[in-house]
Amino acid sequence: MVIFGVALLAICMLSGVFLGELLGLSLGIEANVGGVGIAMLMLVLIVDHLKKRGKLSQAAQDGLGFWSAMYIPIVIAMSASQNVAGALDGGPLAIVAGVAAVAISWMVVPILSTSKREEVFDGALDENHLTGGEEINVRDIK
Amino acid sequence: MLETLSKVFTDNPLIVSFAVVGAAMYISYVISDRFTKGRIHGSAIAIIIGLMLAYFGGITTGGEKGLSDVSIFAGIGLMGGGMLRDFAIVATAFGASFDEIKKAGVRGVVSLFIGVVLSFVVGVGIALAFGYTDAVSLTTIGAGTATYIVGPVTGAAIGATSEVITISIAAGLVKAILTMVGTPFVAKYIGLNNPRTAMVYGGLMGTTSGVAGGLAATDPKLVPYGAVTATFYTGLGCLMGPSVLFLMTKAVFG
Known about the structure:
The complex is a heterodimer of chains A (about 140) and B (about 250).
Chain A: H1 2-26, H2 35-52, H3 58-69, H4 71-80, H5 84-89, H6 91-113, H7 124-131
Helix pairs in contact in A: 1-2, 1-3
Chain B: H1 2-11, H2 13-36, H3 42-61, H4 74-79, H5 82-92, H6 98-103, H7 105-129, H8 135-146, H9 150-158, H10 162-186, H11 195-205, H12 208-218, H13 223-253
Helix pairs in contact in B: 2-3, 3-10, 3-12, 7-8, 7-11, 7-13, 8-9, 8-10, 8-13, 9-10, 9-13, 10-12, 11-12, 11-13, 12-13
GO molecular function (chain B): sodium:malonate symporter activity
Keywords (chain B): Membrane, Transmembrane, Transmembrane helix
InterPro entries (chain B): Mal/Na_symporter_MadM, Mal/Na_symporter_MadM_N
């Protein structure tokens, strides 16, 4: 059933966010530490486990795939609810600091992502098709 | 008539947002195909339209949530709010390969630490250039340059003025927005076309909304890899900001 996939997703997210809160508390900070990241790792591992045993029905995968495909529209709604006016109101210091941080971070990306022994990109994206949803998946959205 | 329509809209906010976002995406993809021959991704155009609408919403209502402060578009805030955003980000992991995440794991963690420190140092440098010299203000603005959540959390912890906290939030917002808009345009120059670089990218940029939006408009395949590291960034920043980074700033600038 479709809801099984959606429920799996919901349970992963709630557990991850809960763990993230606990991690934040144990470190004594008022923030969720990587809750969503933990949830993602859980989902990847659980889906992998269930698929290998053939326990994840196509309908359940469709439930997961739907939310995965809704990601881009949600991101667009997110962009429309950003405080853009507030960002520009922050004055030149805020704008210069934000722009400089992004520009410098961009420059560092190639330095950090290529290693000395020049790892060749090994067609990992093709591999992904094995683990991803076959029919409905975010990668099929243009 | 118009009143009734407006009532239907305000009574069904989330449904309105599906229709509005769908229409905006359709227009964006048509623009992408017809006028840029697909060179500028439809999602990138949609995000830019979204940000412009957010600006319009912000200046007309004076609120902080962009277009969703306009009452008939309140659902946009629900659809694009933290809850559904995080839910959809987790869902993208459905298409991710654990092997790829494992392979780039160490590099992702390294990039997180470098990312937080780098943005912080840049923020402190710019704040210095603008005439701030006290460690508390410098740290808060530096932390805000990491993300718009790290700034206020750090500022509140070390007792920064509300003016400085406001600047720090704005710096983080600028970073998020520029990352959303700019990522698809710089992607090919920085080799952002594989899971490994996407993980490094998430760690370095750190702004979850920025990375989420930027990668969506670059290549949706990369989203889970960038998001998985980016979601740790704010937590790490909140951990380091009021502690290590503040102490270091204090040691240097008294």
